[in-house]
Design goal:
Distance between the termini: 79 Å
Radius of gyration: 32 Å
CATH topology of one domain: SH3 type barrels
Largest sheet: 5 strands, antiparallel
Helix content: 10-25%
CATH architecture of one domain: Roll
Order of helices and strands: HHHHEEEEE
Shape: rod-shaped
CATH class of one domain: Mainly Beta
């Protein structure tokens, strides 16, 4: 192995060149020149998206549909009391098959049976076909057979 002083002796004691035309590059920008090259732009986000899990839409049984209809009827008849209701509903995923179940809590402004939409006071519109369950104090009076329970908020 050779000594650096001997190998670069002709330039080692010279002053560092500073351009008169261009500003000196910052250390961060100089380091960025040597950072790893991302050959596949977007690959990491694509892998993360494919790894994201979505739920499939649940088909309600006849009994669940009957119970949900009873709750919707009770809600329709009591809209003037402005009850606070928690709605469990399915939301389609915009990027891949499936979706997720979310809970939306609030006061219902109106139910449009022909359009099959429930409109909340916040302005949110929830399709009736996406609703899986309704819960709240309003539904305490409903009597469900076969041991079904109703949650109370």
């Amino acid at each position: 192995m050779s000594d650096g002083r001997t190998e670069y002796g002709d330039i080692i004691d010279h002053e560092h060149h500073v351009s008169q035309k261009r500003p000196q590059m910052s250390r961060l920008n100089r380091a960025a020149q040597f950072s790893p090259f991302a050959a596949l732009t977007g690959y990491d986000s694509l892998v993360a998206e494919s790894a994201r899990v979505t739920d499939t839409r649940k088909d309600l049984t006849e009994d669940e549909i009957e119970a949900l209809n009873a709750k919707l009827n009770l809600l329709q008849n009591n809209l003037s009391k402005h009850p606070v209701v928690t709605i469990l509903h399915f939301v389609e995923d915009g990027k891949k098959a499936g979706g997720s179940y979310i809970e939306t809590k609030g006061v219902i402004r109106k139910i449009q049976p022909y359009e099959r939409i429930l409109i909340m006071e916040s302005g949110a519109e929830i399709p009736l076909d996406d609703i899986v369950d309704l819960s709240g104090r309003l539904f305490c009076s409903l009597d469900f057979s076969e041991g079904e329970t109703v949650s109370h908020d």
